[in-house]
Write a structure and sequence with these properties.
The complex is a heterodimer of chains A (164) and B (201). Chain A has 164 residues and is mainly α. Chain A has 8 helices and no strands. In chain A, helix 1 packs across helix 3 and helix 2 packs across helix 3. The relative contact order of chain A is 0.04. Chain B is built from 9 helices and no strands. Classes of the chains: A mainly alpha (164), B mainly alpha (201).
């Protein structure tokens, strides 16, 4: 086996070996090499002693009221609205879109059912805007034209007068 | 090298998905999922912070802040990185700030003055003798001093590598540096520790 110290990742390999992070076959191969290589042996022995020393440093147990204190802090931060909306939040987040879509469909259906079929869309333009301004002489001319047309009609259909 | 290291990727990927899934549930308002995340990561965060600042009260205060920040960020959470990477990034950031703010002074005071008040640990199945206890405390203090003397980033890297068993890539993400920088940090840190602690073997 090639000495790991000769490669770029020599320290990394030996650290992984000490930490028990190498797979078993490679670890066994390395162990065999370490027995015959003084450089690797010196490094691993030194590192093993550091590892052992660090292993002795056990952490203190976490306080039993850690969670309680944390939740008190969390509750203090949560607003009144959060409290009110909390039970509905999963519903709003998970099913909000389908509910909104269903509500939109119901509203649209109700709107269409109320409107008679074939009804022309109501103009949104104000009525006054549709009335054109007409000059008085133009109106007089129009009335005269209409009178003339009526006279012509009477001459062509004398019996139609009563119908008009 | 990469393929030689036992990464347990299957379990890691599953853990990634599970933690991220839990956090996404928290985002949707599921408080119980936050409780599961807290249960799962409480000890590792508190212990990491204990070893970083070397003061139980400060460590717990900081750990509370870590989980509070996680909870506060729930609405904007996106699973772009492994959950524990995010968690330890917050924890490391808070620990480094606390150390720079001088909260570690209390830790040093405790190291100097309160060693006798540390809880007595059993070093074997039998009750330890007074001498054994004293030897154990002396060794423990020596380890703590050696770790405390490391530069902050080296200390964080060693604690994540040794006690949290994090990969180089994850430590790099937590510390916002390259993997090669992490390897260099760890190598220098372990060299320093070896010089200080080798006699304890």
């Amino acid at each position: 086996m090639k000495c790991p110290m000769e490669g770029r990742e020599g320290n990394e390999v030996l650290l992984a070996y000490i930490g028990g992070r190498l797979d078993r076959p490679y670890s066994a191969m390395l162990e065999e090499h370490i027995q015959s290589c003084s450089g690797c042996r010196e490094f691993t022995e030194g590192q093993a002693s550091v590892w052992k020393a660090l292993d002795a440093w056990e952490a203190e147990p976490v306080s039993t009221d850690f969670d309680r204190r944390l939740y008190v802090r969390i509750d203090r931060e949560v607003s009144v609205w959060d409290v009110i909306l909390r039970p509905f939040r999963p519903l709003l987040v998970r099913q909000g879109l389908p509910i909104a879509a269903a509500a939109a469909v119901v509203l649209m259906a109700g709107f269409l059912m109320e409107r008679p079929a074939g009804m022309l869309p109501v103009s949104t333009q104000p009525t006054s805007a549709a009335v054109e301004r007409v000059a008085p002489d133009q109106a007089e001319q129009t009335l005269q034209d209409m009178e003339m047309m009526r006279e012509l009609n009477r001459l062509v259909h004398p019996d139609a007068d009563s119908k008009i | 090298m990469e393929e030689r290291v036992k990464t347990g990727m299957g379990a890691a990927a599953a853990a990634l998905d599970y933690d991220a899934e839990l956090m996404l549930r928290v985002k949707e308002g599921d408080g119980a999922s936050f409780g599961v995340l807290l249960d799962k990561h409480r000890s590792s965060v508190v212990h990491f912070l204990q070893r970083m600042v070397q003061n139980q009260a400060v460590a717990e205060e900081l750990a509370q802040e870590v989980f509070l920040r996680v909870y506060r960020s729930r609405s904007t959470y996106e699973p772009t990185a492994k959950f524990t990477t995010w968690l330890f990034r917050i924890a490391t950031h808070l620990a480094l700030n606390a150390l720079r703010d001088g909260k570690n002074e209390r830790a040093q005071e405790r190291l100097d003055d309160d060693s006798a008040e540390q809880p007595v640990r059993q070093v074997s199945d039998r009750l330890p003798t007074v001498e054994q206890t004293l030897v154990y405390q002396a060794r423990l203090d020596e380890v703590r001093r050696a770790v405390a003397a490391l530069p902050e980033k080296q200390r964080a890297a060693v604690l994540m590598h040794k006690y949290e068993e994090m990969e180089y890539s994850q430590i790099a993400k937590v510390l916002s540096c390259s993997e090669s920088a992490v390897k260099s940090l760890l190598f220098r840190a372990y060299e320093t520790l070896r010089a200080r602690l080798a006699h304890m073997a």
